[in-house]
Amino acid sequence: MWLEPLRGASLRAQAVASLRVLLLATATAAAAAMPHAAIADNFAAVRYDADDDTLVVTMQYRGTDPNHLFSLKWGRCKDLPGGGRQIVAEVIDSQWRDAAREDFVTTTRFPLSDLSCRPAKITLRSAPRFYYTIQVPARAGASP
């Protein structure tokens, strides 16, 4: 059917077309057989715990190991037009190349005691394009 335009083609053109089809089929089969790397870490829940001044972040991810560790890579604090501040933190997965075979969920507490950009909107970012923004108040006992 889809090879009909090749009926009048030379033997060389037919051979090249057949080879392309064979290579595409082989590549597709090989890709399907390979274990896939984790595609994304996503936020299941994020909240601020005022009792111990932490961000409590629950991550959903795929892998072979349930013991992924997550850390934050902080960006720069920015003053927002109209007032307020914002800072972005990239969520880093210690095993981002783990084959995506099973679903896992883990909760990590990130202390904010050393974060000077407060009060602020904190935007957490994980690969590939998941975002979560939460407002964090000034530190308890801090002057306004």
Topology of this structure?
Elements: H1 11-33, E1 42-49, E2 54-63, E3 70-74, E4 78-79, E5 85-93, E6 102-111, E7 120-126, E8 130-136
Could you characterize what this model shows?
By secondary structure, the chain is α+β, with helices and mostly antiparallel strands. Helix content is 16%, strand content 40%. It contains one helix and eight strands; from the N terminus they run αββββββββ. It has one helix at residues 11-33, and strands at residues 42-49, 54-63, 70-74, 78-79, 85-93, 102-111, 120-126, 130-136. The strands form two sheets. Strands 3, 4, 5, 7 and 8 form a five-stranded mixed β-sheet that branches. β1 (42-49) and β2 (54-63) form a beta hairpin. It starts with 10 loop residues before the first helix and ends in an 8-residue tail after the last strand.
Question: What are its keywords?
Answer:
144 residues, alpha+beta, 5-stranded mixed sheet, 3-stranded antiparallel sheet, 1 helix, elongated
Brief overview, please?
The protein has 144 residues and is an alpha+beta fold. It contains one helix and eight strands, in the order H-E-E-E-E-E-E-E-E.
